[in-house]
Amino acid sequence: MRLLVTGLGDIAHKAYLPVLSALPDVELHLATRNAQVLEQAGRSFRVAGLHSSVDDALSAGRFDAAFVHAATDAHPALVETFLDRHIPTFVDKPLADNLADVERLLALARRQETLLTVGFNRRFAPSHVALKGIEADLIVMEKHRHRQPDAPRRVIFDDFIHVVDTLLFLAPGPVLRHSIETRVDQGLLISVTLTLAGTGFTAIGMMHRDSGLNEERLDMIGHGRRHSVLNMAENIRKDGREYHQRRGDWTTVGQQRGFEAMCRDFLTGVKKGRATDFDAILATHRLCEAITLHAEAVCKGL
Question: For the segment 11-30, what is each residue's pLDDT rounded down to a tens digit?
Fold first, then answer.
């Protein structure tokens, strides 16, 4: 498979390029306007297909799939470029930072009958996958940041979106209602709480941007048990007694955080001609838009 990766920043170097460059039967190509970054990435991951731009890469031949790891505001234009050419596309979350662009790109993927995937790695992290389907009537996910208040739209679509998507992934049934609380100070989002509810379950997501530590915790509670995941590295089960299990010494970050399984799943979908999961992508971004509008209304005192 000929793969094109564009956007060679921190996330690409840490999470994606180590995985993609190690896959067999893959011809990897990289594209960025930053010549120094391009050369360094090509050397570090032994990639010969280096291009100064996406247009340059596309003019050099056909690609079986594309990976977009550029800044969020560049996602819509890049995704549109690939979908217009019927190239299956994987894009880091979010697909876009507003619902209008998300709906437009999903409509394009539908018209082109081309796979579009958004990178929600927690859906593939072993610690989270193991909790899918277990008996729990209360799901609580916390993702906090140390002294990082920021603009509401940026916080929600670039960070809190992981909480939203994970709750939807783990919810044992359809979400029938939701509620939102946000706290904003001088235009900066301080905290957000999202509550989802359905038949027999409640799911709560929380983020505080002025917390004492960067940390993430997931709890699945009910039926006499509590399953917890701390920072995607430590699993705790309480069933009258407490059991701890940490990531194995030889488990890579790509495996533990789900990036390896997520990339393989996307490429399998490309080979099999799998359809885009329109409903899941839309549900996550639609809730993010609702949370953002709530916070922006709080800013305006509405």
Answer: 999 999 999 999 999 999 99
